[in-house]
# Entry
Amino acid sequence: MKITSLKFVSALAAASTAVLIAPLSPANAQDSADAPVVFQAAGPSIASIQSSVDEFRAALGIVNNGSTPGPLTEGHREINWDGLGSTATSVVATPFAGFQLTRGALFVTPGDGFVQAPASGLAEQFANPSYETIFQPFSPVRLFSAVGSTVTNSLFFVPGSPDQHATIRGFGAVFTDVDRPDGKAGGIRGSSTLIQYFGVGGTLLFSDFVPSSPGQGGVSFFGVTFRDARIARVRIRSGNVVPGADDDGPHDVVMMDDFIYGEPQPVQQ
# Structure
């Protein structure tokens, strides 16, 4: 079964590095009448963000459509990386198409691939024992990370029809241990973790920093919804240093957990 063009995703992985250094001044649409609704929260415990996550789910459509073939008219999709309770460490190459057929999401990184693992598995994968204690999962027990990069691109397809590109109305993600706050020093915003939302033609629709929760093991959530399905790609920069480094001082290593997004709708050719 054809999943998607390897030439396309290879070009995307190469281009995504350039986006990181692009000016962010036009990214926020707060003054536009068509601006998205933003949901965000951060704190030391799961309870700190739970209400924001639940509100986001309700805004997309409260029903989790799971792996039901689409497109559907209501509800949303979720990926929690937990593999029905698995505690195993799973490392896959890029592009990662494990959820493209079932939930309409393909993941690409300019790095080496992706890992799904509990905190202990992350400590082993990245050869850094401190990771076993500084990362808290939102949905037990596995977390998600790019390997060899801080960048994850999410592209969308109609569940059950992996050749059919799709757009979604909203996308949100949970993060663990975002330490660096979204402050300004010398005119430069300092947060380590960023989400960018792109339309079908590559237009940057919206961009903002993920709120921080200083201290080890905090959790953060950031998501947006638009009035219609216009998001074709989401680019996440999780942390400001590639996993494997120590999480200290200016170095902020960040892991991801649940991805929650609107029901993929087919792109009209």
In short: The first helix runs from residue 6 to 20. Helices lie at 6-20, 47-60, 100-103, 119-125, 131-134. The first strand starts at residue 37 and ends at 43. Residues 6-266 form one domain.
